Amino acid sequence: QVQLVESGGGLVQAGGSLRLSCTTSRRLFSDDSMGWYRQAPGKERELVASITSGGSTNYADSAKGRFSISRDHAKNMVSLQMNSLKPEDTAVYYCNLRSRWIAGNNAWGQGTQVTVSS
User: Fold this and answer.
1) pLDDT tens across 62-111, in order?
2) Helix and strand totals (H; E) in the chain
3) CA separation for the pair 73, 66 (Å, rounded)
């Protein structure tokens, strides 16, 4: 089974920036799609941003204009650059891989905490 390892979370003041990275244990296939989700206390997990193999991106309305997702096939990595962070961005952020080559077509990272102080 593929493993996803996230890094880059932490504590930042409102208006600051963080960059999250997720590395997969196997190379990304051409039809794999990757994304970042987040889950705040008492709330359901929600999509933040996703990117297809062709580079097409999709963002939650709350992330548009502030966050940017990118992927590096050579490094088996997907990143999320988060700027102008707000306290409401505080959540555990999870990396997700959608692939027809893995069981259940989905794999998740362990999550990384992002805390934005006001």
Assistant:
1) 999 999 999 988 889 999 999 999 999 999 999 999 999 888 899 999 99
2) 0, 11
3) 23
Q: Please count the CA atoms within 13 angstroms of the CA of 111 that sit on its side-chain side.
A: 12
The DSSP annotation for 54-90 comes to T--EEE-TTTTTTEEEEEETTTTEEEEEE-S--GGG-
Tokens of 37: 């989700």
pLDDT of 27 > 90? The answer is: no
Burial class (CB in 10 A: 0-12, 13-18, 19+), 30: exposed
Q: How many residues does the chain have?
A: 118
Taking the C-alpha atoms of residue 25 and residue 15, their distance in angstroms, rounded to an integer, is 33
49's tokens: 């941003």
Structure tokens at 17: 């920036």
